[in-house]
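Step 1: inspect the first sequence and its tokens.
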Amino acid sequence: QSRSISPALMAEWPLAVLALCSVAAAICTVAGLLVGSLPDFSEPLMGFEPRDTDIGRRLIVWRNIESHTGYKKTLSLSPYAKKKSYDDLGIGRGQKAAQGEQAARTRRMVETTYGADGFFCGPPEKSYSQLVFMSTTAGSLWNLQAIQSMCQMEQDKIRSHVHFRDLCQRTEANECCPSWSLGNYIAVLYNRSSCLEITQGDISHTLALLRACAPDYHRGVLTPSCIGPEAVRQKHSQCAQVPEKCTRFNAIYQLLHFLVDRDFLSPQTMEYQVPSLKYSLLFLPTRKGASMMGIYLDNLETWDLFDNYTSITGMDLGLKQKLFQHYLLLDTKYPVLAILAIFLSISFYLRSVFITLMVLLAVVSSLMISYFLYKVAFRFTYFPFVNLTAVIILSSICANHTFVFFDLWNLSKSQNPSAGLAQWVSQTMHHFAYLMLASCFTTGAAFYASYISNITAIRCFAVYMGTSVLVNLVFMMTWLPSSAVLYERYIAPTCVYKPEAYWNNSSHKRVALSVHYVLRALQNTLSETSKLLFEKLLPCGVIKFRYIWICWFAALAIGGAYISCSNPKLKLPTLETSSIQVFRLSHPFERYDSEYCHQFMFERLEHGEGQRMPVTVVWGILPVDNGDHFNPKSNGTLVTDTTFTIQNPDAQNWLLEFCQKVKNKTFYYPDPEQKSTVCFMEEFLRWMDSRQCSQRDHSFNLCCNQFSFPYRSEVFLHCIKMMLLEEGREGAETYDLGLRFDGEGNVAALVLQFQTTYHYTFNYSRAKQFYEEISLWITEEMKTAPVGLQNGWFTSKLELYNLQHSLSTETMVVMGLSIAISFVVLLLTTWNVLLSVFSVTAIAGTVLVTIGLLVLLEWQLNAVESLFISAAVGLSVDFTVNYCISYHLCPHSDRLSRVAFSLKQMSCATAMAASALFSAGIIMLPATVLAYRKLGIFIMMINCISCGFASLFFQSLCCFFGPEKNCGQILWPCAHTMKDYSDDSGPNGNFACGGSEKQNRLRKVQESNTANEQYELQPLSRKLSDSFDNSTSTSKLSNRPSVLSEDIQVEDNRCPRAGTHPSLERERQSLQDTLGDQQVTLCQCPALQTSSPYKHSTSETEIHRERLYHSPLPAADIYKIHRCLCSLGSSFDMLNISSETSISDFEQGLKLAESASSCPDALELSDSYSNAERGYLNGKRDTLRLDLRETVFDVSPAASQQNSSSWKNRFGLGNEGPVVLPNSQPDMPDVWIKRSSAQSSGYNS
């Protein structure tokens, strides 16, 4: 009863339902926008770092320690925090020493031999904008034409810009500084006025000079400390080995270190007579940053950055993030056009702008309600930019569901044109609601499964996308049917027919009429082509070639699994999140980050493999991340370790031993330039031993060599503070011993650092080896530590490894969990094990093939790609579930009939949805932002692959192993409405569950001919033809009724007669009078609806059939019974599933009698309705015509009498009787065939 209430409500009060949904959406939208702050997309890459991992928590806590260490902060390097003797940042001594060395090196390098003013404004720096040049002909840049070309291109593209003089660094003469280019350095060496004045001899002499100095540079002997006056060089012993001509000018070092690639004059290419210079760097005298945006957009964004000799192929202007935000907004037109393409496809398919707008409102309302739940119910404060992809994904899901709904809606209207809106809604929603529940619950669960990811943005996307799908479920089950009713009731009737004379009275109207005729012809052509393709060719191709489809798609799935999981697999990222790829690889910014930055020595030593991996061991602060894990801006607070202490003797002894153990490890690297703090206890012990006790100063005696190690707690604390105070007086910077003090001067934490022999690497395996070795050693050492030091932990430069490790381990786990959850949800919605297994197999195959293709496209597994892969399962569900539910609700019992049924019913909508998504993906390909472009590629791939797996692979599996009748169905003891298939569909089946086709036919042949109403064409057709119509005749042998019922309103298990045609009412009354003495009562209501909306079966089917066949009534009265029963059948029984059938109309009437089996009394009829005997052909064999077209009973008053006459003639109730064709099998019933005559005018064939 609840099923009938909701459709009736939507049919009677569509405006009320729409208004209620609109009010709910409006309230949630306003509340969502007003509560909290609006989404901030200024940092679109934020949130793509793993957070809920051990490494992630330690990195968060370490960043907190660094940010909370300094003057007037939680932690300080000195116990005397009132005195500001150190900088606010509180950075380590090693970092300060490195900065001091860099500053000194900069000062020395500025002092050139060309006078105080110099030619350049200091040395090149990382903070200056950089351009990378490459030869246009892929040759060497070390020639006169190429070097002068670089100078000329800089003049044309950079210095000619109107804003360059406002941005450049200036000399003392207030002129823009020259650029640090290859030509300018050669001009300086040989005293040329500009780089355009240099000669070939200057280039040759410079090459000879570089060739002589390059070996010393690559050995590490030629360093900035060796450059300068003789007095400066004598301070460093290694500089004596360097020839004077290499240290006289800083140009030699800067050329090798900054401007030429690492392979130029390297030890491997030193012996080349003419070494090849592939890349050359040019430093502009402008700072990186947003100020360079104007120059880039005006002169560098174009693709004409080349001439006959050189081209600009890479650049680092400090604009990558700023430009990404710029293009992110500029390229929004592509997703908008993609969404527009989806809704244009809906409008084209439905030919209704109103319905398209209503679907658009449903998508927007679903997204806004989900946003309200996301912020208010789930209390998420961070809304990542990737959540906006939900607009495209949800639009695609809605498009698929809209196509399916209106296919079912139009089917209900065509089969019951006289039925009311309530019956159309009820009939459509019985199938559509089931489909929506299975599809949306499965899709939503697949998206929610990505919540287990450790990446914040993916977790936020999982929650928002899953919620959007479930909210959309409610909207599609209420908003869409109400919109359809509103359209049928108020909009469709407004189309007024104009007579032909109206269109001929002006030329404009005649042109419009001609265009209308052309469009109608095109529409008819497309309609006929669609019918041929989706109702004939596709079922034929699937069933005929099912062996090929299974083998082909299984091979694709296996290949995809091998490529995705074994070799070569998805490449792990090689850049940290701050440098993650955001544009296509051909973009100059991306080429610099991914390719060129590793080609120059200064970049390799600063960010590449040249760096040593440090190890930082922390005590006193627990590695606890108590911030909001769903907000990357929330880092939490420091959680102190209450058990931490280093003052007791046991802790002092253990720290001293820990120092010796570190030095004895093979991974320890003693760095002379950056002193480690891991042996601070050893240094403190030397300081204490070096202090002689004083007879005069008793306070001095507290910290002197009279005390033996380990010291008492109060002595240790007092003396360590004194040591820090004395060491701090010697220099301007605060002395970092590794201790961190709180505001009261107590030791709050201990941070010990040292360098290792491991180099920083982008290789995941080597980084993993480093982490596992250090982690295992630290863990073992903490077990032997005293109680106050057992909670120590370590960290390092592990940001990239953390991302690589998370992506490599969790991506496949998320995908597997999504597939497993999809199986469980499908099983809970269909309660059929086989269909759930087949569906999940098709979904898994789709995902594996998609990932395999991504591997072949050489995608890196960055966070964005991981997001797409985690969403792959959710996007693969819809098409497969379309066919799964249609197969499950099919009224036929045999698998081939079900396959043909589901293909005819769902293939057109599925193909249209796939086409819409494919066009949307193509539209997004021209985008500059890589995320948009990859989203378009991913949408195209997964939709095509999903459509193929669903239409061909899933259906082929069902052809072989699909459940028949209730095979594979989970039975419940309390299920009284179990789907029951009558015996009449049994002979039509080609397969039985677990049996073969041949055994099934043999068993059928052996059955006795007790049911004379069975008209089986399959044995005959198998001998007559091998065409598709015969070989798949099981799809046409359904015993469902093919006549249309009148509009019957079911309420409280009674059928009111208001909607019954008067002629039918008179015939029913006459029939009751005729059967009065037989004590027969006609059923007034259709049978109870079972799980399939297309067929009703009861346990008393055979009883009614036998009694009807053996009734003693005349033929005319039998027709009246049939006529009445047809008018009382349930509308669900009348759905025209297939366009063809091989069953007689009289048999259809009997099936309607079966559907009315809830009658309390049986019809007592005899079998005297026909005197035909087996083999009787009426002598008209040559004029027989086998008609396989299904008939449609016209219920209009004008055709009532004509149809009555036609029915009487067909069943021997008129002038001529039917023809009985003997069956080729003696134990099978004969076939009743319609005679070709003019009396068939009541049929549409």
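Step 2: inspect the second sequence and its tokens, then contrast the two.
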Amino acid sequence: MDFNLSTYFNAFDIDKDYELDVSDIDSKLEGVTNLLADNPDSINLNPELFEDLVELVHGFKHLEGNHQKQLAYLLTSSFNSIGHLYSGIIESGDYVDNLEFYKGTLERYGYLVFVLAKHLGKEEFTKSNGKFRNPEMALRWKSNCVQVEDCLTSIVSVLKIDLSKIFITSPERDSFVELFTRPIMNLMESPDRMKVTSIKLLIFKTIAIAVRNHGHATIIQHNIIQCLTYYIHLPIYMAELLHIVATEYDYLLLTEEVLREISQTSFNSNDTNGPKTVSEFLIRLSELSPRLILKQMSYIAQLLDNSNQSLRCSVVETCGNIVVDILKNKADEEIDEHANNGVEGLLDLLQARVLDQNPYVRTKAFQALTKVLALNIRMSARRQKMIAIAVRSLDDRSTLVRRNTIKFMSKLILTHQFTAANGSRLSYSLWKKSLDESEAELLKYLPLSPKKKKRKPILEDGNVDKENVDEGEDEEDDDDVNDYDDVDEEELQAAMEEQEHNLPDTTVLFRAKLKANYFKDAVDFIEAVQIGTQIVSKLLFSKNRNEAIDSMDFLVLADAYGVETSEEGIRRMLHLVWSKGSSDEGKSVPSHLIDCYTNLFLTAPKDISRLEQTIIISKNLIGLTLKASLADLASLEKLLGMMYEQDLINQDVVKVLWQVYNTESLVDESQTKQRLGSIIILGMLAAADHSVALKGLDSLLSIGLGDEGKNDLTLAKYTCIALQRLVPSDQSKSISREDEFHDKLISVLLRYSEVPEWFAVAEQGIAALYQVSSKPETICSELIKEKAIAVFNNSLENENQATSLSQLLFIVGHIAIKTIVHLEKLEGKFKKKKHDAETKKSNSKDDEDNADELEMIGGTSEDDFTDAVSHVKERELLYGEGSLLARFGPLVKEICANNHNYNNSILQRSAVLCMAKFMCVSSVYCEQNLPLLITIMEKSEDPIIRCNCVLALGDMAVCFNNIVDESTDFIYRRLTDESMMVQRTCLMTITFLILAGQVKVKGQLSSMAKCLENPDQGISDMCKLFFAELATKDNAIYNGFIDIFSGLSNDDTLTKDSMKRILKFLLSFIDKEKQQKQLSDKLLVRLTKCQTETQWNDVAFVLSTIPYKNEAITAALDEGFKLVSART
């Protein structure tokens, strides 16, 4: 039977189960092996031998492992020998007479190897978690890989033959080569097999030879496209294949044709794998052969018009890789003008893509530009465009884009190319000064333009009209462009001669102009960086933790380069100490903040002494307190406490801070601020370790509570704060020199002062008494008595009695609050002591020493003690016959109720504040005076009093919710107060009450929602934060949306545009489809009941904004208001 390759090839089916007689398989294998060993050509001489081999290879899967190895080795070694033999014969030219014989032999071996390769590729090896199920399967895998390598090696040896001399026609040659390329493509379908480097390289070599030597490019091109379309693991390997074909085999046409076909491919909108694999292919190919893609960039750029984002991303990244490759090698080789133009065009394309509609594409554009900047190539003009683009993109809606923009700006700063006498720092003031100087120098060399003589307006009396001189000059400036009639010719001639005499040579003038342009570029760059820094400062509080961390890193970098606007951002960064959560790398935001502040303020040059380092760190810490707000100080205290606990602030720094505080002779105001800053920092550190305050107790008493503290009340205030940290809150109160502490502190509190800071000192001083003193109630009673005697006797004529009474009432009110706090602490200590005693009693019943104590405590239940404390607060403190505070209850009520008689503003503030604090002590007093407090809040003209009333009602809502609950509407009214301060206070109070669950929302959320459109940005941001937190609590926004909508829709003071923005913001929190459906159904019912077109438009807007839609909603909206009009 004659052998026909096409017949055998088309008849073979790898899935067909061919029969094989394995009874005498050993003898059959031995027979064919002996025949082929003697003469590999015998396959073409002995038809029975060929048929036996065909039978064996068809039934390959039925053979045992050792028989498979024997057969595979026999075929591959014989084929390899034939390849080497025929290659030599063809090269020698002695092949014409036996051409048909050689052709038949190759075809027969080719078919056998084709079937063998098909079987080897078909064999399955299952892995679990990257490992084979059993050792036996692992051995089979290794054996299979060896057989595949042998098979590929033999194919390579045959393909090295000049097949065009054996296979005369192209179809014959293509059919023969396809015997190998087709199973090779099947081998590539296995991800595990492609990870074997030796097999992968042999596959690439085989395909490359087939393409270059045997005209197989078209078929391989088609196969590559198929691989990219259907196999997600092959894109990177296809890129490597094309790279090898182009570089090692110098065949570029295949890559060009593949790229051309890809650019013309249209993908189905539902196809996600296709665009993804093509994208991976392009990116990998651009990494391996960027110049190759550059030649076909006109085709690749067409993918930017594709709607699929993955393809556009890949093109952008490809452009970046090409630019990086060209610029990286710019120093090593000469770049022709075409390549330079290509780089400029690609950079333009990348800059244009930062405006792409998809955020991932914009992100890729910034990542590519960042890679370009990392090369530190000079691109002065383009850098100005880049920084402008970056600043604009900091306002991008996508967090991912903003993060990469921040990194891009960081790279711009790191690689900036402006250096001067001050180094590479980007201080605006220094560079602006240099610019002004360079421009002034340049003006010396520029020729003067002829000017008209200035005519001053003359009045009728001959005097100069001075009022109209400027106006006349302005008009003259407008006219002198076209009018030279009045030029002083002599003066002009003299000026021109003088300038010609002083005119420098061309080189000096050219340098002066370059210098001015250089400084102008630097100033423009710094101005853009400053704007960007201000925007980044706002991104510190992004919900995305990674963005916050990236913003922190940028601000630290900007500070290192001297960007002046970074200072405000670094100060705002402090508030991140309260953040929760961590980044993708697992690092928390507070931890990163500690790292940043350590680098900024706790790191000193290493080439100086330890003492100098300590002094620098101490000054840095003190500097943090300058111009700091109360919020800044609270955050700084938290941060320093964390840093102290991590031993980042050592005791040497504490000693230096105490030395600064102890400075006796203060020369100027800066030293006063230094001392104030030192005690602020020491007080913060003492909160983490009370021994810090104990070390300076003498200084605190002699300076802060001495003459210096009396003259500087701010110093006294922070001294009192430090004194509060002398004793930890969880330990018993006992300090040395307690009597001296009492005397000095009372002396400060009793001292008359008209300075407003006195009230802050009194607040902290009383807090220090209750925190440190072992008998605070006794000391405070004496304080009240002495202050009352001084006030009502009016012993000193130079004291204002209203001010003195204000101070007295403030002291009384604050002592009342601190007293109930003290009682609550005593109650907690009692319960803890009782619990410890009971535990101790159960553990050691025979301990006689504690018998009496146990009996005393055990005889009193916790409820009894709680009832006793409650009785003291309700009936004793403000109503007891022997209570000192009870004497002031009627007094403050009288002053508050008769504000016309007692019209001193300070007195009214103190009286209202005192009454509010009394109301937090006793529910009886609260109920009696609540109407008065609400009246004051409603009618007082003093915004501070209104603020205090709002805060007081918030506290009472916590203490006595049942009393204040019916009056919460009065608090909501303050959201529309004429004072922004009152509005802000009210919003903060309501936010706390609602989020803490202290009050129930009863339809007032619409008032809160209106604050989203408040002109004050701080109030608007706070309101957004409130709703963001509210959205996390049991569908609160969904449950209250109808009430909010009704309130906003019926509010005539709110514009429709503002209402729509508010509703759109709130609807963004209703993201569950079920809730959207239910809300839409409710609104659809309301839509059909609208009586006016305005109502209908409002409801229709909400329905159109909600993502959920159905036919009924769509039909109702399409019908419009006419349907309602017809019904009515």
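Step 3: confirm your contrast with the notes below.
The beta strands are 127-128, 131-132. The CA atoms of residues 600 and 841 lie 55 Å apart.
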